[in-house]
Amino acid sequence: MTTERRGLPIEIHAKGRKLEGYAATFGTEARIADRFTETIAAGAFAASLAGRGDVLALVDHDPGRVLARTRSGSLRLAEDTRGLQFELDVPDTQAGRDVLALAERGDVGGMSFGFTALDENRDGDRRELRAVQLHEISVVLAWPAYDGTIVNARSRQFLGPFAAYADRALRIMELGR
Question: pTM here?
C-alpha cells in the first residue's frame, strides 16, 4: 500500500500555544494531480482513531519537524460530522515558533494529511476514501493539494467549538493555480 498526502479546505486557529481546526473535511471534492476527483467519506478516520497507532503533527510532511503526536497527548484528534478535528500543543522549538507566528499572521497555507487508503470506491475518475490509516497531519506553509483553503488566525480566547471567535481575524484564500 502506498502512503498518500492530501491538503484540504480547512481552518486553523491559533489559541495561545495551541493550533486547532480541521485536518480533513468530509464530502469536499478535490482534483488530485489532474488525474481524478476525490472525496472523503464520513467515518474514514474512525479505525485510525480507535487504534493504538501514533499519529504525528508535522510541518510540510517533514518528519524532522515534529510539532506534536498522539502518543504523548500533545496532539488530539476526533471525528465529528464535519471532518477530522485536531488540537495540538505547539512546542517551544524553532519549528513551533515559526508555525505559530505564521498562523497568527494568517500566512499558513492550510492543512494536509498523510495516509494509506484501506477502503475506497472508484468510479471512472472519481474516488471516495471510505477508510484510511492515518499516519500524520501537517501544517502546510505554502500550497496544500486542495484549492480554496481557508486559514484563520485568532488573537483572542477560543469561545466555542470552531464557531465563535472575537477580535483580530485574518482570513486568506489560497490563490488559484
Answer: 0.75
